[in-house]
TrEMBL record:
Endpoints of the signal sequence: none
SMART domains xrefs: HTH_ARAC (SM00342)
Source organism: Acinetobacter terrae
Keywords from the UniProt entry: DNA-binding, Transcription, Transcription regulation
Family matches, as Pfam families: HTH_18
Annotated protein name in UniProt: Helix-turn-helix transcriptional regulator
Keyword Manganese: no
InterPro entries: AraC_XylS_family_regulators, Homeodomain-like_sf, HTH_AraC
Domain HTH araC/xylS-type: 197-296
GO molecular function, one term: sequence-specific DNA binding
Cytoplasm listed as a keyword: no
Cited SUPFAM superfamilies: Homeodomain-like
């Protein structure tokens, strides 16, 4: 969809006029948008969207008609609990003959595509969630209830909760509604010598800073999922665990070579969040405290 202007969730109301009843924008949820609307009966054109849109009907029944890349209308009855799916990157036209109350979940295509590559261990060249006028899907219906409760009540661990729900919804869509075309053979080789040297040098020079998967992927000019697969083949562990091992080795070196350097300074120089974080990692990986390492 490069070069095509794709509308985002906050622009939907320009194309489907209605009363906004719920909005996750105030919560700044990452990678998932949740909205509620009350609509009168209408006939609307929806331009190509950046996201997949999942619609959950809450009140009233209506005849729902839609057409995508065909002049032929599809028509089904929607009732409370029913689901419609609108795919990413396609214009569509929708019409209904009664007032309806709905909730929307929006998942960006790039996030769903990332999850698809992690599931299939393979790059995806073409990827599409098949549109659905009306289906009964109790699992998707339950996610709407969970998200509405989270939006209204909230609680500790909210970001982790939303990330988990987002991933579960994406996997559910991929299992039941996806068409996929694969672009390359399964990754079967690890990193070459030059790639390993580039990674090691970068991590060593940035050991005291936050290092992201995007940073490492950019160095090797590959996607994050491709990097993760090659990393697992080469080192038998995730990039995060590999980096943490290097942080521990660097901290051990400082503990033994600079006996007067405070533990707090060593922790920060080695890229740990703080001294307590370093101590927990040492206990977990070495079964010793930093002080015990220093006294050896």
């Amino acid at each position: 969809m490069e070069g095509k202007n794709l509308i985002i969730p906050n622009e939907i109301q320009q194309w489907i006029p209605g009363q906004l009843t719920l909005d996750s924008q105030t919560r700044n949820w990452e990678g998932l948008t949740f909205k509620g609307y009350y609509y009168a009966d209408q006939d609307v054109h929806i331009p190509a969207m950046r996201d997949y849109m999942i619609v959950n009907y809450k009140q009233h029944a209506a005849e729902m008609r839609c057409k995508h890349d065909s002049p032929v209308w599809q028509s089904k009855i929607v009732k409370p609990g029913h689901i419609s799916l609108l795919t990413y990157g396609e214009d569509s036209r929708w019409s209904w003959d009664n007032q309806i109350s709905v909730s929307h979940i929006y998942l960006p295509h790039k996030d769903v595509n990332l999850i698809s590559t992690q599931i299939f261990n393979q790059e995806i060249s073409a990827f599409k969630i098949k549109p659905q006028v009306s289906i009964e899907d109790p699992i998707l219906d339950s996610y709407f209830n969970l998200l509405e409760h989270e939006l209204k009540i909230g609680g500790i661990g909210g970001d982790l909760f939303i990330e988990s729900i987002k991933n579960q919804i994406a996997i559910h869509l991929l299992r039941h509604f996806a068409d996929l075309d694969f672009s390359e053979k399964m990754c079967s080789s690890g990193l070459n010598k030059t790639q390993k040297e580039l990674l090691f040098d970068y991590i060593q020079h940035h050991i005291g800073l936050k290092i992201t998967l995007a940073d490492l992927a950019r160095i090797l000019n590959m996607s994050v999922p491709h990097l993760m697969r090659k990393f697992k083949i080469e080192f038998g562990q995730s990039p995060a665990n590999y980096i943490m091992d290097l942080r521990v080795k660097y901290a051990k070196k400082l503990l033994q070579s600079k006996p007067d350097l405070p533990l707090k300074a060593i922790a920060l120089d080695s890229g740990f969040c703080d001294q307590s974080h370093m101590s927990r990692v040492f206990q977990k990986t070495l079964n010793k405290t930093p002080l015990e390492i220093r006294r050896r």
